[in-house]
Amino acid sequence: MTNLRYLTVFPLILFWSGSGSALVPMADDSLGEVTGEGIGATFDNVVIYSSDYGKPGDFQLRLKLNNEADPDYLVFSELRFNRSGAEPGSVDAGGFFGTYDDPFFVGDLREITEEHLSDFGNGNSGHKTFTALYTGFPAADLTQVERDFYFYANNKKTYTNTFTYDGNPFSIYRDAPEGFFESGNISVGNYFTLAEQLAEKTSEVETRLDQATSKFDLHMRVDSINDSNRNLGSDEQFLSYVDLKGVRLYGTEAYIWAHDNQGEQAVTSYINGEPVRATRGLAFSMNTGLRADEIILNTNVEGAAASALSLRGVDVYLPLGSVDQPASISTVQFQQETRYTWGEGSYEQAKTQMRFEIAALPQDIGQARQGNIFIQSLGFGDENDEEIITGKEDIYLRDASGNIVSTVADVAHRAFVPKTVIYNQQVEIYNQANPDNPIPTIPNQNVIEIRGLEIQRLVITTQDL
Amino acid sequence: MKNIIVLLLFLPVMVNAELSILNDSELSDQTGQTGITLSTRIEFGSGTRISYSNPDASYLDNTDYWLVFNELSGSIELKGLKLDLIGDFGPAGNQGALQWTLPEEVTFDELKTEGIYVGPSAAVGSNHQFLMGVEIDGTLTMPAQTKINIFPVN
Question: How far is the CA of A114 from the CAs of A121, A285, A315, B112, in angstroms?
Fold first, then answer.
C-alpha cells in the first residue's frame, strides 16, 4: 500500500488544481460571452528557505502512511528554492518567474474540440466541443526540441560514420564521423555545420526561456519513519537529499473542463464491460516540460559525493491526457484479488478506492500525444572513484576542418558518460587556455532516450496491501 | 454537480484571524502607499473537513463516492503580507497591477488533516478507506521581498 499511497500524491496535487467546484458545460449564449481574457501573474525575487532538519523552526511536510497508533511517516524537509547558483536563503538569491508579456496565466476560458468523430445515433455524427479553463506557465507555447544529433543529422550528413564488418554496417560512435576519436586527420564533411545548426535551435529555446523565467535550484531532504527506525536518531531515518540544479518549466499548461458524452452512442469495453467513451465529469489534461542541468539524489546524510546519483542534461516532456483522452480523478468500488492467491479466483469484499484515469484513445484518432525523455549523462558517486573510471584514452582535439590541433593523453572515461561529453570537457579546457583560437565543441549524445511515450489508456486504482 | 459540497466556501466562518498592534518601529516603516499590510493567523476549528466527489463520471457502480480531507486542524500565520495597487508595471512602466509582497515568514503550527479518505459519503464512516494523512509544521522564510504582480491579460 505504501507505494500506492505515494502514487496518490500526484493525482492529489492535480486534484487541488481543479478543486473548488465542478464545472458544467456552457450554454450557447454563455459561450458567446467568452472573451479570451484571463489573469496574468509574475513572480519576482522568489526565494524560499527553511532551516536544517531537526533545528528549531525547521519546516516539515509529513505524509502519514497508515492509520495506526504508531504510524509510518514520509517526511520532506529542508525546502530551499532560489535562483540557480545563488546562496540559498540570501536576500539576493531571488529569481523571477514570468513577465508581463509571458506571465503565469490563469482564468482564460477556451473552446476545445475533439478530433474524435462521435456517433450520436440516427446517422448523426460530429465533433464534441467543450469550454475549458486554461492555465499556462511562462513559455507555455514552447515545445520540446530534438536533442539527439543522430536523428537531427539523419539524411543531412555528408560524412560517413559507419564501417563494414561481415557485410553489415556498424558505427562505434554513431553521431561522429568515422575515425573522429582516433589519431590522424579526417574529413568531417558538414559535421560541425550541422552541429552548429542544432546548437542554434536549442540555444533559441534557452534564450526564450531566459526571457520567461530564471533557472532555479531546489533542495529538499526526505526521511522515512517506520518500525525499524522509529526510536532511532534522525541519521538512521534519513532516506535521501534531492537536489534539482538549474531547473525550469517550459511548454507547461493545463485544461480543466466538464466532460460529458453529449449523447454519443455508448460503446462498452471488452474489459469489464466499462464504457469506453463515458462521461468523465470533471476532466483535465496537461503538458509538462522540464529542463534541468542536473538532478542529484544523495543517500548519505553528510552528503558524501560517493553516495550521489546524478542525472545531467535532463529534458522531460510529458503530455498527460488530451481533449480526446480526458484525465479524471474519481472514487470507485474495487474488488481486489486476495494477496498471494493470484489467479485462483479469490476476491476480497469490494472497498472504496481512489482512481486516477486517462481515458482510452478513440480508435479513429490512431495515436495519442507523445512525450520524450532525454538524459545526457549519469554520474555515480565520486567521479574520481576508480570503480567509476572505465578506462583512459587519448583525446584528439580537432579544429573545424577535422585536423588535430592538440592531443590530451590518458583522459579518464567514466561509466554512463558519453565519449562526446568527455571530448567537450577537454575542448572547454583547451578554449580557456587558447581564447584567441577556440575549437568547436561537438554535439553531445544522450545515455538515456525514451522517445514516443504514448498513453493508450491509464488506470491507477489504490489497493490495500 | 448538485451533490458536491465544497467546504472551502464556508472556510471564513470556521477560521479566526486577528489584527495585531504595530509597534513604533513597525509603524515608522509604513509609507502611506495605496496598499495594506496584513499580519494574520488562520486556525482551523475542530471538525473541519473538505469533501469532493465527481458524480458525473460514469462507472458501472452508480454510488457517489467521496474524497474526504478529514479533521483539519492547526494554523497558518503570515507576518507582514503587503498588498499594493501599482501603476508602473509592464515594459513601458505604465500598466496597473495588484502587487502582493509575500511575508518574510510563513509559520505552520501543526497544520494537518487527520486523514484523507475515500468512501460512500461526505463524512468519514466505517466504510471509508484511509489513504494518507498530511501534517505541516515549521517555518518557511522568504527573505527577498518576493513579489507577485497580478494583472488582466487581453
Answer: 18, 13, 29, 41
